[in-house]
Amino acid sequence: MKRKINVITSVLAVTMAMSMLTACSGNSGSAGGKDAASAPNGGSASPAASEAKDTITALLPPVSPNFQKTFDQIQKDFTAKYPNLTLRIEPASWEDMTQKLDTQVNAGSPPDIAFVSSDAISKYVQQGMLMDITDAVTPEMVSDFDKAPLDYMKNAKGLFGFPAYMEVHALGGNKAFMEKAGIDWKKVQQNGWTYDEFREAVKKGVVQENGQTRYGFVFATKGVAAKDYLAIMAKNAGMPHAFDKDLKYAYTSKNYLGLLKDLRQLIDDGSMPKELSSVDAGKRWNMFLTGQTMITGKGLAVFENSAKTNNKKLQANDGSAVKGSIPVDYIVLPAPTFQGAKPSSYAVVDGYLTFRGKKEPTPEHKANVVKAAYFLASGQVAATTNNDLFAAHITQSGRKAAESMKIDRMPENIAAVDSMLKNATPARPDIPTDLGAKAIKLETEVIVPKFQALIAGEITPQAMYDAVKAAAIQAFGENGIVKD
Question: How far does the signal peptide extend, from start to end residue (predicted)?
């Protein structure tokens, strides 16, 4: 009870603090506001502080298809705005991003900024390496962001960076294949579907052609995507977070066992390949473009852009098109709901987290890191990146910069994403960092390997559930888990 009272008190405190910041900010919301000259809390920066040379480091993956190609220009534009500051960007692939960052964090010398999922905040806060920027952000910066995605960058009373986008992890379908199978994809986009409806639909998508099987559904479950399938579906099975509102670990619920049975059932039906555990993100997308599956996951809005790009290459007989690929009209689809639960879309909020080393940074350097993180997350940089991703803009400055940018999107897909965003899982900054870190550890050490074994047919759903429950009791205690 004491912990719950402390959590509620912290949430109220940060809510009041951020409300005061927003109230003082007016409605400028401009990337060219007072952030260039203002000290924390809107005070005046000293001439020495504003003119001192400083370098800010950033570790950034290929956030969008063309993001890393713009690094030179981003660095030049940043220095043009802040002549005394240098932004030094280190590129990383998605595959080695976490390893690179963790190596630097463990050595006590992380970059100032890293592009990371908001889900990892509790992990790095627990390690003492994230930098709380609450006292360094300006009101103009705060008011520029939509509230929901900004909340994802908070934990208890701290703000640990700026969000780049708020999107949903969805599924993607081949329009021609779905229509051939008699699936009303427009109805699904508008109204969603239950697991039973989804199960029957993907059965219809299984086709034998030229001695090969086209599957109804394929999801990447290997490598960096190992945790995605189960995590996304769990939100639609009545478990939107790893902890319920009473801070009890949720994956010991009977719904979790039911979900595991359902996901294994899709393989047993023949709707998914038996070798699903060997399918990584690259192979999943290759199978979709080459017509080896009707529906794929996980899917972000940017996949429509990627499919259109490959279609153009095929039309132009460009040799760089995916080998063996076919023209594809990509359709955004919601994940099914399980166990009678309400839709709860997996809101993916990634962004620019702010790190600190073993030593406390100077106020001047902290302010400069905030300027760099905000520069990356707003205005022209955000507009360009999010348009490349087909992602919704979450800053006023980004929306304004994007007004002159044109993108080719299917109207039905735009409406489908907007609908899913309305059902997006809200942020949970009330989850204490120690609980969040333990949940991440349990996921890494127990859930992911056991789920790999489950989809490979090596263990049963009950065996996995029992293993997760036993680990949860050890981590959170008998009274710290859901019992239903």
Answer: 1-23
Instruction: Give the end-to-end CA distance of the chain in Å, rounded to a whole number.
Output: 21
| Domain 8-166+349-408 falls under CATH 3.40.190.10 | yes
Are 18 and 156 a contacting pair, CB within 8 Å?
no
**What per-residue confidence (pLDDT) applies to 50?**
58
Residue 411 near residue 190 (C-beta atoms within 8 A)? no
DSSP 291: T
CA–CA gap between residue 229 and residue 297 (Å, rounded):
8
What is the pLDDT, as a whole number, of residue 209?
85
Neighbours of 128 (CB within 10 A): 11
318: number of Cβ within 10 Å: 11
Q: Do residues 285 and 276 make contact, with C-beta atoms less than 8 angstroms apart? A: no
pLDDT of residue 370: 98
Q: Tell me the C-alpha distance between 398 and 408, whole Å.
A: 18
CATH 3.40.190.10 residue spans of the chain: 8-166+349-408, 168-346+433-480
The highest-level CATH class for domain 168-346+433-480 is alpha beta
- Amino acid 223 reads G
Distance from C-alpha of 383 to C-alpha of 164, rounded to nearest angstrom: 10
Which candidate, 82, 90, 87, places its Cα nearest to that of 110? 90
Signed CA dihedral, 65, 106, 365, 55: sign only = negative
- Closest by CA position to 455, among listed 171, 218, 197: 218
For the record, the structure tokens of 184 come out as 């009303």
DSSP label of 478: G
* Rounded distance between C-alpha atoms, residue 469 and residue 446, angstroms: 10
Encode pLDDT of 242-265 as tens digits: 999 999 999 999 999 999 999 999
Amino acid at 262: D
Q: Which of 112, 163, 140 is nearest to 41 (CA)?
A: 140
Q: Could you tell me the pTM of the whole model? A: 0.75
User: Phi, psi (5° rounding) for residue 166?
Assistant: -130, 110
In 3D space, the residue among 283, 173, 153 whose CA is nearest the CA of residue 222 turns out to be 283
Give pLDDT < 70 ranges for the chain.
1-50
Question: How many other C-beta atoms can be found within 10 angstroms of the C-beta atom of residue 50?
Answer: 18
* d(C-alpha 400, C-alpha 393), whole Å: 10
